[in-house]
Amino acid sequence: MTAGPMSPDALEAALRAIGAERYHNLHPFHRRLHGGDLNRGQVQAWALNRYYYQSRIPAKDASLLARLPTADLRRAWRSRLEDHDGTAPGTGGVARWLKLAEGVGLERAYVESTAGILAGTRFAVDAYVALVRERSILEAIASSLTELFSPTIIAERVSGMLAHYSFVTPETLAYFTPRLTQAPRDADFALGYVREHAVTVEQQEAVLAALRFKCDVLWSQLDALHFAYVEPGFIPPGAFVPDDRR
Ligand SMILES: O=C(O)c1cc(C(=O)O)c2c(n1)C(=O)C(=O)c1cc(C(=O)O)[nH]c1-2
């Protein structure tokens, strides 16, 4: 006899267990970033590559928004677009990320061009956008659930970076302040949806797989950064070269 579906509480516990095991707070690159073990060029490489993630988040949310069947769902989801794109030029998360990148010494136009990012960053981020576009609404919503785990890492990152890097200021890290309230709000909504709608064994397996996939998306971006800029420090042709490596 095969086991039946989990209760919503058991499903939530299984989702949280995935984060405890696989979220990118456990990656050595983040340990170094937050612990003050990177130099300015390595922090620049992180900010530059992560811009690509930030810049594609509104595209993935817009593609999901277009598929949501009710006004209630669309209203809830569209606040993500407003958070990232802002409500006027120069506002919103993507603009704040550009300020972060400029704050650590990068040129805005170079960052926006995405010309210097790693192929690993591009492939991982594009795979996330494709999953949200192509898979079920349930899987697309579940793939955002890494945000259940982000407030802890953001708090760690902001305090760690401010303590350890003289070139990082509170203004530079202003990107993260609203995320501490936006992420829990968004994650609570997504978790409520998943608890209510993932009711069959197949649906529950699909949402767990979507969250594992998303953890892989975040993890592999850090793998790419680590290999190129930390150990062995093999920068691929065409990728950003920090000043101290020229
Ligand atoms: O700083 C982080 O570690 C972190 C993680 C995540 C995440 O877990 O996907 C997001 C963010 N930040 C973030 O700033 C953000 O806007 C965001 C949107 C999403 C998403 O999947 O829709 N994740 C994240």
UniProtKB/TrEMBL annotation:
Enzyme Commission no: 1.3.3.11
Pathway(s) where this gene product acts: Cofactor biosynthesis; pyrroloquinoline quinone biosynthesis
GO MF term set: pyrroloquinoline-quinone synthase activity
Keyword Oxidoreductase in annotation: yes
Pfam families documented for this protein: TENA_THI-4
Record-annotated Thiaminase-2/PQQC domain positions: 13-223
Superkingdom, taxonomy of origin: Bacteria
Catalytic activity: 6-(2-amino-2-carboxyethyl)-7,8-dioxo-1,2,3,4,7,8-hexahydroquinoline-2,4-dicarboxylate + 3 O2 = pyrroloquinoline quinone + 2 H2O2 + 2 H2O + H(+)
InterPro entries referenced in this protein's UniProt entry, alphabetically: Haem_Oase-like_multi-hlx (IPR016084), PqqC (IPR011845), PqqC-like (IPR039068), Thiaminase-2/PQQC (IPR004305)
Keyword annotations: Oxidoreductase, PQQ biosynthesis
Ribosomal protein keyword on record: no
GO BP, one annotated term: pyrroloquinoline quinone biosynthetic process
Protein function: Ring cyclization and eight-electron oxidation of 3a-(2-amino-2-carboxyethyl)-4,5-dioxo-4,5,6,7,8,9-hexahydroquinoline-7,9-dicarboxylic-acid to PQQ.
UniProt similarity note: Belongs to the PqqC family.
Name the UniProt record assigns to this protein: Pyrroloquinoline-quinone synthase
Source species of the chain: Aliidongia dinghuensis
